[in-house]
Amino acid sequence: MKKVITFGEILLRLSTERHLRFSQATNFNATYGGGEFNVAVSLANYGFNAEFVTRLPKNDIGECALQEIRKHNVATTNIQFGGDRLGIYFLETGAGTRGSKVVYDRANSAIAEIEPNSIDWKAVFKDADWFHWSGVTPAISAKAAAVCLEAVKAAHKMGITISSDLNYRSKLWKYGKEPKDIMPELLKYSNVILGDLDTAFFMTGQETQDPDYQDMDSLPELYDLLYKGSPDLSYVATTLRYSVNASHQKIGGILYDGKKIHYAKIREVTPVVDRVGSGDAFMGGLIYGLLQDRIDNQQTIDFAAAACCIKHTITGDFNLATLDEIEQLAGGNSSGKVSR
Amino acid sequence: MKKVITFGEILLRLSTERHLRFSQATNFNATYGGGEFNVAVSLANYGFNAEFVTRLPKNDIGECALQEIRKHNVATTNIQFGGDRLGIYFLETGAGTRGSKVVYDRANSAIAEIEPNSIDWKAVFKDADWFHWSGVTPAISAKAAAVCLEAVKAAHKMGITISSDLNYRSKLWKYGKEPKDIMPELLKYSNVILGDLDTAFFMTGQETQDPDYQDMDSLPELYDLLYKGSPDLSYVATTLRYSVNASHQKIGGILYDGKKIHYAKIREVTPVVDRVGSGDAFMGGLIYGLLQDRIDNQQTIDFAAAACCIKHTITGDFNLATLDEIEQLAGGNSSGKVSR
Amino acid sequence: MKKVITFGEILLRLSTERHLRFSQATNFNATYGGGEFNVAVSLANYGFNAEFVTRLPKNDIGECALQEIRKHNVATTNIQFGGDRLGIYFLETGAGTRGSKVVYDRANSAIAEIEPNSIDWKAVFKDADWFHWSGVTPAISAKAAAVCLEAVKAAHKMGITISSDLNYRSKLWKYGKEPKDIMPELLKYSNVILGDLDTAFFMTGQETQDPDYQDMDSLPELYDLLYKGSPDLSYVATTLRYSVNASHQKIGGILYDGKKIHYAKIREVTPVVDRVGSGDAFMGGLIYGLLQDRIDNQQTIDFAAAACCIKHTITGDFNLATLDEIEQLAGGNSSGKVSR
Amino acid sequence: MKKVITFGEILLRLSTERHLRFSQATNFNATYGGGEFNVAVSLANYGFNAEFVTRLPKNDIGECALQEIRKHNVATTNIQFGGDRLGIYFLETGAGTRGSKVVYDRANSAIAEIEPNSIDWKAVFKDADWFHWSGVTPAISAKAAAVCLEAVKAAHKMGITISSDLNYRSKLWKYGKEPKDIMPELLKYSNVILGDLDTAFFMTGQETQDPDYQDMDSLPELYDLLYKGSPDLSYVATTLRYSVNASHQKIGGILYDGKKIHYAKIREVTPVVDRVGSGDAFMGGLIYGLLQDRIDNQQTIDFAAAACCIKHTITGDFNLATLDEIEQLAGGNSSGKVSR
Amino acid sequence: MKKVITFGEILLRLSTERHLRFSQATNFNATYGGGEFNVAVSLANYGFNAEFVTRLPKNDIGECALQEIRKHNVATTNIQFGGDRLGIYFLETGAGTRGSKVVYDRANSAIAEIEPNSIDWKAVFKDADWFHWSGVTPAISAKAAAVCLEAVKAAHKMGITISSDLNYRSKLWKYGKEPKDIMPELLKYSNVILGDLDTAFFMTGQETQDPDYQDMDSLPELYDLLYKGSPDLSYVATTLRYSVNASHQKIGGILYDGKKIHYAKIREVTPVVDRVGSGDAFMGGLIYGLLQDRIDNQQTIDFAAAACCIKHTITGDFNLATLDEIEQLAGGNSSGKVSR
Amino acid sequence: MKKVITFGEILLRLSTERHLRFSQATNFNATYGGGEFNVAVSLANYGFNAEFVTRLPKNDIGECALQEIRKHNVATTNIQFGGDRLGIYFLETGAGTRGSKVVYDRANSAIAEIEPNSIDWKAVFKDADWFHWSGVTPAISAKAAAVCLEAVKAAHKMGITISSDLNYRSKLWKYGKEPKDIMPELLKYSNVILGDLDTAFFMTGQETQDPDYQDMDSLPELYDLLYKGSPDLSYVATTLRYSVNASHQKIGGILYDGKKIHYAKIREVTPVVDRVGSGDAFMGGLIYGLLQDRIDNQQTIDFAAAACCIKHTITGDFNLATLDEIEQLAGGNSSGKVSR
Question: Where do the TM regions start and end (chains A, B, C, D, E, F) (predicted)?
Fold first, then answer.
């Protein structure tokens, strides 16, 4: 069984029910999630040996997060305990013409205050096949960025495949650094990158190009620009999203292997139950495909896009769909019949 | 007031809320339902004297089912008490590209262990005008099949109109018999059959034909095949369903009277609140139309299809729509305006 | 800060959850609302000094309504206390082909029994810029109609702009008078009228014309008919609604300034979370635009229609959308992206 | 099977959850109840043929009440339909030193406007053994009082046993009559009266005596005073209640048969889950005992008091305890062990 | 109407339902509260003109807090907006032998980062009669302590009565100062102090004495020690609490006026619905009594203790009891009868 | 870290909320539990390496149980998958004089149909220090009894300490064997037995003695009788329970070490939130004490009894109390103060 490590933050998510606005809520649904952990859950569901590395406060809320990690069969072996609080985000789920709304309350979280050199990455990566991180972690604090760099360097040195999700969030990056100061060094070791071309150019400090994702011929040239900064890069992937309204999305994807563009066809996604974590579902599907010998690149991008679609029907940050459900959708069956 | 008897199983339905997956649920909504009982509820709502015959365990859960039957104004006069448990089914309600999921836990239920000759069908059918059963009941156990046969024979002997819903469920039929061993004898007494042509051919052991429901000319020939095994058959009806996704169905219907095909036009059904029991809603509408003198065959199939459509907007197994609501929809008003 | 007074009834609204029918409900969500109060909430949200005048019973339920008014930053200075009960309405929220259903239980409410001359309108309107009322209030009782007339006369005398929402409800008007007996005198003082042309002609006792809202050339002539009875009338507006089904509406609007027809383009509104109060949201948007110098008539009708659309995504009677959200939608961005 | 008729009002009860105050509630639990109906439910649970006569409005809320009556196996044969609304009461459930609070909103209910001579009491009482009414009904309106008098006269004429629960509510009796104007004539036909001596003297216009319920010797003399106005009176019973706080009651009872005082011993009742309807539970227990040959007077009062106690542990107006549970408690087993 | 100002923090409270432990919770009830705001709510309920001064973040969660303040009729005129987050506390409600548990997550809240001299206290205290603060605010941060000192100085200078609740929380005071460094200067201006003698000695840096609250003769000497540091001190009060278990408290109180000890008798409080904020309820009762001419010192302490008791029956931080309810309990009626 | 293995059944528990009776429930809270698993959760909470061996069906409900096991940090390494269903029990939580009620629906569960020799007990017990089982497992079916015997024999052979909880349930033992046919052989290998003396004599087929648990002198002689059948027995323990009512228990315990009786003092437990699993909490505390060197026998029984008490305050089958909370209670602090 292949072993995948992900590193990042897990937050308490407090969301309103039934599309209520924050000011109408007298209670919040409490779940736990975060980009890199969401990917780990997907991979554990697909049968991999998944492990999540993070830092959790030693209080009851941190303990709840720990139980959630265990529940999803994600290993907790190398989690560090310390710090004052678990980061929180508040979520108001929109509908139709009203978009969802996130209020972050994640400053000063346990992982934001992680000490460099406090994790023994050599031990963490023992027997591991894959390491995944995203651009959210270096955006949290200088310390988190430093530990993230330790991780990618150690993984690279040990010959572990590294996937990087650009995941740009403008509301983070508040500690005095810009993405272009930090990300190029981190992305240098990537074997797989997930992200928009625009974001990639912005984060790597390159001049922005204007990609037309429908123009198959022009894309390789643009994607090739990313290979310069990441010498070991094998794949670049992009999630294609077109938002009709908050309840209706169109979702597809692109996988580029340095030679060829593979498209996953655009699917209608309506109604949207919860779109948070759908990018992580895409990422989880991508890693699944790339870690499997039996699946080719076209099947990989089809699987990733189908995973992303089906995530929109599931409440919470995780993609709780089964391999079988995703494969059926990837294979073209979107009828949603009752299974009985 | 016309009197209709239905016979079958009522189950405890445990469903997740808000499209949650089973693994996310910390509580289940508890309702009660089952194909033949659902039909009885429809008919009671339409003003008929409806009675449901079943077997219930003498425990608190059986008592809850009994109260639900009473609440809906369905007579309980001939219910038998005994056995160990009420059958259960778990329901996870899907959305969009993710279909709903049913986990059956109905083995060894009270009615599966009903003793042949334990119900006085002659007394049950006294003053009755109509008897309805479905293919789910003989699929449960040899005993249930035997009692079902007693019922149709008694009803037939007493000159009561008999409607049969084929209702094939591949997960049942576990007791060593196949539908073709059991169903032909049961269907022999039918005056009305509801089902797909494919299912009908399969259950009656005929070679499968490939029906094209849009081809009005070819259909009578195929439907006529069913009249051979059921000499008293007057009507065959089929629900037409096209599934765009779990939240979006297209619903129509066909009624064949041995001479002419009557179509109910296809309607868009979106969003789907709950599609379980929509076939029973169709059946209930069909019986309503056929029991009314004032309604012709076209109006009957329009009513049945409208009942099926509106059921998709109602949570639970029953079609709690009123006559007036269904007639408005059948008459072409689908605007769903606020009634105030 | 401009000051707006509205006068009318606030009711306890008891609604079923999750599209349940009344007979399935074991609890009701309890909120508070009413046409004129809903308008006041919109205006308070937009930053105006809004005040609601009504009559509330001196019991716990009246106190709950009072707290709701305060919570939304609407002034309660001139609320009168007395009477026996707060009016109630029960709401069953439909879906798809099944419309929502309202059961009124509002007879004998505190405001229905308000005594003429019991409110010092001169004090109420001190420093006020705008007065809004609707046709629901004179429909409740002769006393409510009398007090409404006192209000419009006082407002007119004090030079305050008066907006009138026709708001015809056939289930009201039970006290022996018809709209045409009461409304012309009330509408006489209007500066702004919101309503369908049909309703306007019916309420003012004019012969009904058959308006074609798509025919820009024919409309001015029809709208001009309303100016005869209301010599100070500046604007007439109409909400355009086309109902695909209970979950899918198409919404636009018209603003006529005595010279020119301004259209707000028709928008798809799906899914509909709650359409109650969407007309009041339109009205609130209209007043907002007309009270602002920086917004022209086209922008005003665009804002009003966008406010109406976004209200459909919000549970409860009020439009809890922010200025910014409505302006974005009015400006053409309906993608409903996650704000994070 | 003995047949018992009760006549009165059934109301929609809207109660706050988890001891919330009204101003904290964002939803209300919706149940249905009313003194005389509550007694009917008790008797149906004990195996009697119970029927409830009332008047219900022809709207969805009235239909909900009707379904609740059916669910509890109480016959609805003679219910009259008409009127505008179902009466409502709001309930805030207290705890400890804070008492529960009721807000009535029951004026102008369907039964308050029942027409005299509109019920065929002779048909109602055919085959009946017992008729029960309470002092709440004549307190509602002159019409309700008139119909109540019709009922007791008819029952008396047909030789049916009549039980009367005094049930004084000072907030009712608003239509210009006092209890002493109405109750003596109604009580004249009683065979069984339940009530405090104080209330009985007040309602029958006698000079108030000061009863000491612990003084067994002085009581017969006082109870005997009631026999003067009710020549057919056989039994008088009183519920003894001592309130430590809202969560802790002490409950006993007295049954006087014209000769002897029978006491049910005082039991500690803590915690109190819901005390509404506990008097009706007592009444139901009393009728049960008096209708049974196998139970003597001491056993009857023990059963009635035990029924009253156990009701305090059950949410809602009805005593949903089984015969077996009450008999166990009446027999002295109050350990509340898990039954498994 | 007397005007009372309170100054402090309002937090989002996230509590588990039904005595669930944190690890069992899938949702949290969301309410808002904080010591000084809780006092303001009590005083608004008693009919005073109450105003709360605080600092709120300009985000949706801050807006929710603002609406809660308004809902309770507490003025918001001088609230300052800014900062990053609203403080949070998580509450697990215990039962019996298991105590409730609080997890604080309030560091870096808006008020912790308030700038000195940013509030115009002279304007705030215009027309005010009373100012209340507590020891929680100077415990938050040096900045909050500084602003608190500005407030008491300004209030003292303007001749406003000042009440101080010692409110010691060992988990706060993390910014490098101890209570004895800060509190004496703040308490110097007090006219009324609420607190334990132990806490008072500790906070004012005096040698701890060992008070025996049952020994009426020894107490004045100890209380008198507090008058030395607070020359304008008129009253010292102490809440007496004895905890049988988490669901059962005994509550009394002491009021010392510099001459005489007034005791409120100890009351049994069981069950405890929610004890958070019961000290603030006591404080609110104390201020009520001292601001009323018609109430003497004994009545004041009786009222304060009764307010504290009844708060234990109410969910949330606020004492939502009415004047009438508290006076009844203070007057000796603790029977908790249903009010109907 | 000591390793403890437990073997038995885990069930889906469906319980009504808020003390509702089954017939009032429209939803059930869904949790998972079972005697031996509950013990494993206690031990995992106390920091041991706990593992649960069972058989789970390969369906969604079995998967939910698996996730619950993982969440609580109990190892799932040797769980067998197969069979048709997870056993279910329905729970109605009583209050006061009304006891809780359990309806079992656990026949034909996955573990009831476990095949003998299908578990490699030698592998299971590798590195284990303790094995725990209870009398519920052999009561389920002959197969479960046979596998249980395999387990105790293997454990005994490998020198692992064995604890046996008698756990007699009269509603089980339906497969044709009585306890005395099966239990003596199973108990033979015990090192620790938990149970009543009565139950022990009944299960081992000895003549019943009448123990007086308050008579310290007579008890050793009775307990010694158990040592005859179990040659390796070191300890016998008994939970002492006295039920005042369903909401009020008195709990103590006895530990006999073959020489001396150690009593845990009787504690008042009120209110009872949930008493299911309190015996398992006792057992977990006992194993904790016996596995610790630092704790003597008196401290062990005090800890076990305190664990049992505190479990009564926690919803669900598990004792989610921490070591620290139990030790505080065992040490005499039952005040239940707020921890903040």
Answer: none
Chain-chain contact of A73 with F70 (C-beta, under 8 angstroms): yes
**d(Cα B329, Cα B247) in Å, to the nearest integer?**
20
What residue numbers bound the domain in which D178 lies? 3-238
CB atoms within 10 A of CB D209: 14
Q: How far is CA C3 from the centre of its chain?
A: 17
Q: How many CB atoms lie within 10 A of CB A338?
A: 16
- Cα separation, F74 vs F43, in Å, equals 9
Residue from F250, F232, F233, F252 nearest F242 by CA: F250
Q: What is the pLDDT of residue B48?
A: 97
Q: At what angle do helices B179-187 and B142-157 cross, to 10 degrees?
A: 20
The mean predicted confidence, pLDDT, of chain A is 96
Q: DSSP letter string over F171-203?
A: T---SS--HHHHHHHHHTT-SEEES-HHHHHHH
Instruction: Please write the tens of the pLDDT for every residue from A62-82.
Output: 999 999 999 999 999 999 999
The mean of the pLDDT values for chain B is 96
CA B277 vs CA B36, B207, B316, B317, D13: distances in Å: 10, 29, 8, 5, 31
Cα maximum dimension of chain E: 56
pLDDT for C263 beyond 90:
yes
Q: Which residue of E has its CA nearest to D243?
A: E335
Q: Is residue D157 part of a domain?
A: yes
In a domain, residue F247? The reply is yes
Report the residue of chain B nearest D65, measured CA to CA.
Answer: B71
Chain F's closest residue to D308, CA to CA, is F97
What angle separates helix B278-291 from helix B35-45, to the nearest 10 degrees? 50
- Separation in Å, CA of F123 to nearest CA in chain B: 30
pLDDT of residue F340: 67
Q: What is the pLDDT of residues B176-208, one digit of tens each?
A: 999 999 999 999 999 999 999 999 999 999 887
- pLDDT band for position C340 (cuts 50, 70, 90): low
Please count the structural domains in chain E: 1
- Contact between D2 and D161 under an 8 Å Cβ cutoff? The reply is no
Query: Is B49 an 8 Å CB contact of chain A?
Result: no
Query: Which of C226, C189, C221 is closest to C204 using CA atoms?
Result: C226
Question: Which of C21, C96, C100 has its CB closest to that of B320?
Answer: C21
Exposure letters C223-234 (e unless 16+ CB within 10 A, then b):
bebbbebbeebe
Torsion angle defined by CA atoms of residues D139, D141, D145 and D147, in that order, rounded to the nearest 10 degrees: -140
Residue F120's CB is within 10 A of a number of other CB atoms, namely 11
pLDDT confidence of residue A340: 67
Max CA pair span of chain D: 56
User: Rounded to a whole number, what is the distance in angstroms from the first to the last CA of chain A?
Assistant: 31
Residue E136 lies in a domain: yes
Burial of D150-182, coded b for 16+ CB within 10 Å and e otherwise, reads bbbebbbeeebbbbbbbbbeeebbebeeebeeb
- Predicted confidence at residue F31, as pLDDT, reads 98
> Residue A333 falls within a domain, yes or no?
no
- F245-274: pLDDT as tens digits: 999 999 999 999 999 999 999 999 999 999
pLDDT digits (tens, 9 = 90+) for F20-68: 999 999 999 999 999 999 999 999 999 999 999 999 999 999 999 999 9
Q: Is C10 helix (H, G, I), strand (E, B) or coil?
A: coil
**Could A103 and E61 be called an inter-chain contact, meaning their C-beta atoms sit closer than 8 Å?**
yes
Instruction: Assess F328–E contact: CB distance below 8 Å, yes or no.
Output: no
Q: Is the pLDDT of residue A208 over 90?
A: no
Please tell me the distance from the alpha carbon of residue C69 to that of residue C55, in angstroms, as a whole number: 12
Contact (CB<8Å) A325/B98? yes
